[in-house]
Design goal:
By secondary structure, this protein is an all-alpha fold. The chain has one domain. Helix content is 74%, strand content 0%.
């Protein structure tokens, strides 16, 4: 738990020093993006959306199929549908911000961009209709999704230099997180 708190603080400090220069000054949004980064540094949370058979969903296409199935299954609540949509938005933001080169290499950047924006818009609609506090955050993320993803990509390239070429990009990111955590402990 202490490691999570340190990592969250690291991301908040990093984004707070970088995002304003990129036109993102809302501290609530900076904290939200830092929370997404912190949460997704744990693979169990990055891949927490499971299929009906319990399989880990690692790509947006599988998550979208789960959304479709949730919409067809009237026994599933709006809460579950919203949870999946928020995860898709967060996942798309994370992947476009941290692993954009990977998405470009396999030719699915536009899909992630479109689905991130769409998912945050749906979450905003549900939250607004239920009068949930913080609904406006998801409207902002939907409207400016390319800017947030681009800002996160810029921060990654300028502040999160990845090492160990040839390794899986997620493994490299996790190694780098370990180094940052060690440095912040010192």
């Amino acid at each position: 738990m202490q490691r999570q708190a340190q990592l969250r603080e690291f991301f908040i400090r990093t984004l707070r020093s970088s995002f304003p220069g990129l036109g993102i000054r809302d501290m609530g949004m900076i904290q939200y993006v830092a929370e997404v980064l912190t949460e997704f540094a744990r693979t169990d949370l990055l891949y927490r959306i499971r299929s009906a058979r319990g399989e880990r969903l690692e790509h947006i296409t599988g998550m979208l199929m789960e959304v479709r199935d949730a919409q067809e299954d009237t026994s599933l609540s709006i809460v579950r549908k919203r949870e999946i949509r928020q995860h898709i938005g967060d996942y798309a933001l994370f992947m476009l911000g941290i692993f954009r080169e990977y998405l470009e290499r396999i030719g699915i950047t536009e899909l992630y961009m479109m689905e991130g924006r769409t998912s945050y818009h749906r979450v905003w609609e549900w939250d607004r209709s239920l009068y949930r506090p913080g609904a406006q955050r998801f409207r902002e993320l939907s409207l400016r999704f390319p800017e947030y993803a681009g800002a996160l990509d810029f921060v990654k390239r300028t502040r999160f230099a990845m090492t160990s070429p040839g390794k899986d990009p997620f493994d490299r990111f996790m190694e780098q997180l370990e180094r940052w955590a060690e440095q912040s402990d010192a």
